[in-house]
Design a protein that fits this description.
Number of helices: 11
Radius of gyration: 20 Å
Helix content: 25-40%
Largest sheet: 5 strands, parallel
CATH architecture of the largest domain: 3-Layer(aba) Sandwich
CATH class of the largest domain: Alpha Beta
Strand order of the largest sheet: 8-7-9-10-11
Oligomer: single chain
Strand content: 15-25%
Number of domains: 2
Shape: globular
Order of helices and strands: HHEEHEHEHEEEHEHHEHEHEH
Structural class: alpha/beta
Number of strands: 11
Length: 259
């Protein structure tokens, strides 16, 4: 249940198109549904503007399938993160309509929302090719949450001319997600070049002293470029969710969406 569907439901009751009992049946799973092993939040799209997202990591395929089915049956677009290839094959057998995005390890069911007219675009930037799984998790998630998304990959500080040759892309974006491992310097460079929100995503890519992304995380948290927001290591999804909320605020048509 999201804002649009609730508005349509209430309008149908007002206009006599459906009965109050029918509307109550449609609303009976709000705000959540108990599956025994999970409380499925059918109310989240109404509160946040996008439905509950399923974290595939740590769940059995049976659990993923059951949650996805219930969300899908309620007419919600379903997004599954951290879905490896084997689990995706099993989920796809039970739910043949599953779309799988292997580069970002994401699965989806249903039709994602279209970007609202007048809303800006999110630019996902990666330092290196090794950062692409996290960058693609961010980019595809942002697309499936209803954003226009552009990509700019392999423009790390080891070859800064690659970044400087794409300044128009940087300045055209409403929000930038910058993904980097190793020393994690790229968000600081970009943060000093643009007047838009920059969300920094440290990745676990790097040699021993990178400590599986801890070095990049600390570098980004200590950036001298003002206004950089930092999410957790390898958290492309979290960056996309934050960028989505920021991007909506840039669109006057979305001024009344729930925070």
């Amino acid at each position: 249940m999201d804002r649009t569907r609730l508005h349509e439901l209430l309008s149908s009751v007002r206009d006599g198109g459906i009965s109050i009992d029918h509307a109550l049946d449609a609303l009976k799973t709000l705000p959540f549904e108990d599956l025994g092993f999970a409380l499925v939040d059918h109310h989240r799209a109404l509160r946040k503007g996008f439905p509950e997202v399923i974290l595939g990591q740590g769940k059995t395929t049976a659990q993923i399938i059951a949650i996805a089915q219930r969300l899908n049956e309620q007419g919600q677009h379903v997004l599954i993160t951290r879905l490896d290839t084997q689990a995706a094959a099993e989920v796809g057998t039970a739910l043949p309509e599953l779309r799988y995005y292997p580069d970002g390890r994401l699965g989806a069911l249903g039709t994602p929302p279209e970007p609202p007219r007048g809303q800006g675009r999110i630019l996902v930037v990666s330092a290196g090719t090794a950062d692409l799984p996290v960058a693609e998790e961010a980019a595809v998630t942002a697309e499936l949450l209803g954003n226009g998304v552009d990509r700019l990959y392999d423009v790390g500080v080891a070859g800064l001319h690659r970044l400087l040759g794409n300044l128009e892309k940087l300045h055209a974006a409403s929000v930038l997600i910058v993904v980097a491992g190793m020393e994690g310097a790229l968000p600081s460079v970009i943060g000093g070049l643009v007047d838009r929100p920059v969300i920094a995503v440290p990745t676990s890519i790097g040699y021993g002293a990178s400590f599986n992304g801890l070095a990049a995380l600390l570098a980004m948290l200590n950036s001298c470029a003002a206004g950089i927001t930092v999410v957790n290591i390898d958290n492309g999804f979290g960056a996309a969710a934050a960028a989505t909320l920021m991007n909506r605020l840039s669109c006057p048509a979305n001024a009344n969406l729930p925070a």
